[in-house]
Amino acid sequence: MIPEDLYYSEEHEWVRLDEDIATIGITDFAQDQLGDIVYVELPAVGDRVEAGAVIGELESTKSVSDIFSPLSGEVVSRNDALDGGPEVINSDPYGEGWLIKLRTSEEEPTAALLEAEAYSALVSD
Q: What 3-state DSSP class applies to 17?
């Protein structure tokens, strides 16, 4: 199930906007493709990130995958709970499995992102 209230990147990250703060994670589709996640590397609080840039990586029992930032901005929080329990991304990718929060520097942060219907079409092909 793809939550309707989020925005999505073609690289399978999701974005939840609350004014200028964006919470970012990976989609259920992405975690399913990766398999059991065993390690997460995330940027530090205060890091500046650019949309489309690699900001970390996820290591699973199958592979290592890059995490791409869907937006530009400054990291204001990271989910430190993932350091000791990265598997929560598999069990709750849209809730407790969030990755980072950033203060977006974009005027229209959702302009380049997909809505739920378009993302659903992307992953169902």
A: strand
Distance CA(57)–CA(64), nearest Å, equals 7
Measure the CA angle with vertex 118, ends 8 and 24; round to 5°: 5
Question: What's the pLDDT tens digit per position in 59-110?
Answer: 999 899 999 999 999 999 999 999 999 999 999 999 999 999 999 988 898 9
Q: Domain 7-119, what architecture?
A: Beta Barrel (2.40)
Q: What is the DSSP string of 27-66?
A: -HHHHHHH-SEEEEE-PPTT-EE-TTSEEEEEEESS-EEE
Check if the beta carbon of residue 24 is closer than 8 Å to that of residue 100: yes
pTM score, two decimals? Answer: 0.95
Task: Give, in order, the Cα–Cα distances in Å from 40 to each of 35, 72, 104.
Answer: 13, 20, 22
| C-alpha torsion angle, residues 25, 28, 34, 40 (rounded to 10) | 20
Domain chopping of the chain, boundaries: 7-119
Other C-beta atoms within 10 Å of 24: how many? Answer: 27
- The half-sphere exposure of 45 on its side-chain side, counting CA atoms within 13 A, is 5
